[in-house]
Amino acid sequence: MTSEINYCEPIIVENDRKALKEIERSIIKTYRKPIWSKFIKAIKEYDLIKDNDKIAVAISGGKDSLLMAKLFQELKKYGKNNFEVEFIVMDPGYHKDIRKLLEENLDYLQIPAHIFDANIFEVADRIAGEYPCYMCARMRRGALYGKAKELGCNKLALGHHFNDVIETTMLNLLYAGSFKTMMPKLKSQNYEGLELIRPLYLIEEKYIERFIKSSGIWPLNCACMVAAKKIGNKRYEIKALIDKLKESNENVEMSIFRAAQNVNLDQVLGYEKKGIKNSFLDEY
Ligand SMILES: Nc1ncnc2c1ncn2[C@@H]1O[C@H](COP(=O)(O)OP(=O)(O)OP(=O)(O)O)[C@@H](O)[C@H]1O
């Protein structure tokens, strides 16, 4: 299976860059149903934004977080303006041409971002051996939380979308032997008073791809200079597996998603709550 998988499929943008106003309009018009409405729905359903929140919106420069930044700007324009945002971008050690592309995109899209440097790629590559992704993700999370805190934010928004959520569920099931999903929000254990939110939770990746391609913006693709050389990323295998399953069951993605909404505690052998393990035998 591994040999067939493309570990980092780049997004090829087919048309010229559209005018900024047109790009912004397309978010709430052309992509109203699959993107804008899903963004609003997740915010409402999971109560992601409260009055007076100050939200650090984390942008890697990839398609997901660029869209997320624009969604927050549109929300401030057309929705309730009861919160503040700060856009934060951490440079983990990008190649200088990638850094330039990132800055140009932010500039073109009029996203005023705090860009800061962290030496994450180099450290993860040096000390994490063949499986740098986990270490890199942890260090990255730390750097982003730290910056959010420094800016006085109480929330950190990340650009994980619907497909990230179901892939995580499957990764846990198939490789960790546990049933766990990616949550739409969670309180940080290490940074008191900081909450992580995922406003793209209900948005399917294919629409983000369509949006970015039609905008003519070249997002950062495979900017990671470490994992591209190594094969530690099981996520791509899961993606391929879900695609394969979809050929015979088009609802498979929704089923995986719903599984985390419909856990039947009478039909599990054991579960963990607040760090304490429970067995069905405890109450049998
Ligand atoms: N260097 C960074 N600076 C700021 N935020 C980041 C950075 N890297 C990741 N993030 C945040 O973490 C989220 C998840 O990171 P991940 O690398 O899994 O994203 P991705 O699937 O490549 O998404 P994207 O298209 O936004 O890069 C991003 O959407 C973004 O919000």
From TrEMBL:
GO MF annotation list: ATP binding; transferase activity
Biological-process GO terms, alphabetical: tRNA processing
Gene3D superfamilies in UniProt: HUPs (3.40.50.620)
Pfam families assigned to the protein according to its UniProt record, in alphabetical order: ATP_bind_3 (PF01171)
Keyword presence, Transmembrane helix: no
Positions annotated to bind ATP: 58-60, 64, 88, 159, 164
InterPro entries registered for this protein in UniProt: Rossmann-like_a/b/a_fold, TilS/TtcA_N, tRNA_thiolation_TtcA_Ctu1
Domain called tRNA(Ile)-lysidine/2-thiocytidine synthase N-terminal: residue spans: 54-217
Keywords: ATP-binding, Nucleotide-binding, Transferase
Superkingdom of source: Bacteria
CDD domains: TtcA-like (cd24138)
PANTHER family (UniProt xref): AMINOTRAN_5 DOMAIN-CONTAINING PROTEIN (PTHR43686:SF1), SULFURTRANSFERASE-RELATED (PTHR43686)
Protein name per the record: tRNA 2-thiocytidine biosynthesis protein TtcA
